[in-house]
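This section describes the prediction task in plain terms. A model, or a person checking by hand, is given the sequence of a single protein chain and must write out its three-dimensional structure as a string of tokens. No templates, partner chains or ligands are provided. The sample shown here is typical of the held-out split.
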Amino acid sequence: MSDSDVSSHEAGAKVPKDPEGPVLGEVQPTPEDEAAQAVMQWLTENPDTNAGSVRILADHKTVVVYWKGDPPAELQQVVASQPVPVTIRKAAYSRAELVAGARSLMDANKGVLTSAGPSHDFSGVGITLSSKAPQTALAAVRAQSAVPIEFRGVLDVTYGRPSSRTLD
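The expected answer:
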């Protein structure tokens, strides 16, 4: 090892310089990550009310774009130009429709719902209930909604002070 490969440390001890390039354990984007990012960038630069989202599915190999209606030719070109397969799936609802529905449900069910938002595949709205919600809350929310409801569980949110878990 030459002197140019090491740096000085206490009392003249030789310590290897930081390696160039990726460091062991450093996360590098996969081709799927890069494809999803490229499509998401296009969606951001070309806003459309029919746009859903881009996801990499649990298999870590499948990149999916959700879109309500027929996707524009430009999006299809971006998808086709990616180094890995990207699939455009029909969404039952647009992001705008589901966000509006989720907001309406949250406003109508204060103290009952702790969260509401588009489901991952844009087929409805996912919700979480407060632990203080009555037994009939889920059925009541489903009856109020114009879109399908996905129950995600019970979650209590504390505002204004950290919980003990955040201080661990």
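For orientation: The beta strands are 6-9, 13-16, 51-56, 63-67, 86-90, 113-118, 125-129, 149-154.
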